[in-house]
Amino acid sequence: MAPLQTVSRALARSATASRAPAATAVRAMSSTPALRDSSSSYQSPFKGESKTNVPDFSKYMSKGSGSTNALFSYFMVGTLGAISAAGAKSTIQQFLVNMSASADVLAMAKVEVDLAAIPEGKNVIIKWRGKPVFIRHRTAAEIDEANSINVASLRDPETDDQRVKKPEWLVMLGVCTHLGCVPIGEAGDFGGWFCPCHGSHYDISGRIRKGPAPLNLEIPAYDFSDDGKLVVG
Amino acid sequence: MATAIYNTLFRRNWTMLGAVFVGAFAFEIGYDNVMNKVWDNNNRGRQWKDIRHKYVEGGDDE
């Protein structure tokens, strides 16, 4: 590598050396004045000051010790950093809080149903987020019927346990999974729901048994509160 | 004293960063508290928590 560098350096040097007269030729043609004394060393534009005088900065020097000054400087830097970090965190947090659902929206998103008012073997339809929700208080016979079905033979295999939290309460979205009609309760070939639009039959667990619908009736998120109430949402 | 603080907190970058974050946390709590106090003081008598006892009898369980 070294010889190559030497060669290239020598080439570069010879190139500049040969170009020097050409540069003066260009200089001669130029109309702008040449820099005065461009060949000599730097001259201060301020006349009369032959020597470089360093001004006296002692007036501005800190009285404290070096370590105190360092501590103070870093303390100020750290304080600024801390305030900035708190501000940044607060900004981001407020944006995220702003994006989350407000209290009125959350209140609209939940529906409370008093289960004591629903007798055994009865359906109740409530409105939740603009959609009907079926609640059925199932009898023991209906629970047995829902459990006795061979799950493997179903189109959308789900056991009854997967679809209910308490076997006597069946809570599901009353929207047919075919094209979104509202099925009719206590109808159809399987004692459950029947969609009049295209003839889908759902059983007592809301599972599709016959007809064009591809999936079982959807189960919303719900919970039983302690005082015998059902909270959907 | 100054040297000791400097050496323990600011000498190493990670301790400095930790001090900054802890400081930010403490500062935020303090600042929020002070600002809440100022707000409550400015709006004394107008907030629900100030007039609640007039409308809700007993039972602080909401």
Describe the structure.
The complex is a heterodimer of chains A (233) and B (62). Chain A is of the alpha+beta class and 233 residues long. Chain A has a domain at 113-232: Rieske [2Fe-2S] iron-sulphur domain (Rieske Iron-sulfur Protein, 3-layer Sandwich), CATH 2.102.10. Chain A is built from 5 helices and 10 strands. The model of chain A is unreliable at 18-22 (pLDDT under 50). Chain B is mostly helical and 62 residues long. Chain B has 3 helices and no strands. Chain B is rod-shaped, with a radius of gyration of 21 Å. The mean pLDDT of chain B is 87. The A-B interface holds A 65, 67-68, 70-71, 74-75, 78-79, 81-83, 85-86, 89-90 and B 2-3, 5-6, 9-10, 16, 19-21, 23-25, 27-28, 31. Chain A: It comes from Chaetomium tenue. Chain A: This is Rieske [2Fe-2S] iron-sulfur domain-containing protein. Chain B: It comes from Chaetomium tenue.
Topology:
The complex is a heterodimer of chains A (233) and B (62).
Chain A: H1 2-29, H2 66-99, H3 103-108, E1 111-114, E2 123-128, E3 131-137, H4 140-147, H5 160-163, E4 169-173, E5 184-185, E6 191-195, E7 200-203, E8 208-210, E9 222-224, E10 229-232
Antiparallel strand pairs in A: 1-10, 2-3, 3-4, 5-6, 6-7, 7-8, 9-10
Chain B: H1 2-10, H2 13-42, H3 48-55
